Amino acid sequence: MSYRSLFKKCLIGSFAVALCLFQAACGGSSDNGSTPNKDIIQNAGSDTMVNLAQAWAESYAGVAPTVSVEVSGGGSGTGVAALINGTVDIANTSRQMKPEELERAKQNTGQQPIEFIVGFDALAVYVHKDNPLEEITIAQLADIYGEKGTLDKWSALGIDHKACESGEIIRISRQSNSGTYHYFRETLLGDTQDFKLGSRDLHGSKDVVELVERTPCAIGYSGMGYMTEHVKALRVAVKSGDTAYPPTLETSLNKTYPIARPLYIYSLGEPTGATKTYLDWVMSAEGQKIVEDNGYVPVQKDAEPENEATGD
């Protein structure tokens, strides 16, 4: 090798070393831009609440740029399991944690889950937009979904559903790890029955509405926040002869709509630090405005009891 080539090679190598030292001094690295000293709040759970939780997280990034709220769905059961295992800071659920789940969380982590009611949701009953049906009762829904139910044709509800050629009622439901599934089943059937087999069980709230939109014969249930112009939300009455009410903010607040429920966040033990500050913000006027903007019912502090620790 000539002296000139050797000198050139050494010069290039020296430049590369100098560049690396410069990048290191200026903070350059291969960590994909991760920010040091940033508080991360892990949040998982209810698919019903996932859009709301993401909206909270995005808005809070502007309020507290040194805090990152990382949101994932998967269903209320997924969030509860993560809380029990201590892998999340907070869990979103559209049902209350069961006594045995509370006990398992305390045994596994040494901390008692704390319950917060962060909003309310009317669980809408959706049909295809061309379905002539306008209202339904809880008893009729139980007869459609329940294991002892015999109502399987639209004509049995006194309508001529021309868009559904088979006349068959196609039941759209949620998977059994969903808080929406458990709440809807208990509202219709109590603790004595289960749903009949043969429904199309979907993972997500949005998926239910989209399948009803594409399926003229379908009926399904999902949060009112997922309503679109391509489906119809039925008015619901408790029993025949009662007034049927639509799922709205007003009917949820005055408790005339019969399938309305609280939405919960559970923390692992009394929240502290960044988690407490975040939950305080969620319950603030700004956080509750986001609840309403996403189609849910904000907590009315003058009408609802204070959030309390769930008892041992």
Alpha-carbon Rg, integer: 26 Å
Number of strands: 11
What proportion strand?
Answer: 15-25%
* Average pLDDT number: 86
Main sheet?
A: 9 strands, mixed
Helix content: 25-40%
Low-confidence stretches: 1-34, 302-312
Give the overall silhouette. Answer: elongated
**SSE sequence, one letter per element:** HEHEHEHEEHEHEHEEEHEHH
Task: Describe the protein in words.
This protein has helices at residues 3-25, 50-63, 76-85, 99-109, 138-145, 179-189, 205-214, 249-253, 273-282, 285-293; strands spanning 39-45, 67-74, 90-93, 113-128, 135-137, 170-174, 200-202, 218-223, 231-233, 235-237, 260-268. It has 312 residues and is α/β, with parallel strands linked by helices. Strands 1, 2, 3, 4, 6, 7, 8, 9 and 11 form a nine-stranded mixed β-sheet that branches. Strands 5-10 form a two-stranded parallel ribbon. The longest helix is centred in the N-terminal third of the chain and has 23 residues, at 3-25. It is elongated, with a radius of gyration of 26 Å. The N and C termini lie far apart (80 Å). The model is unreliable at 1-34 and 302-312 (pLDDT under 50).
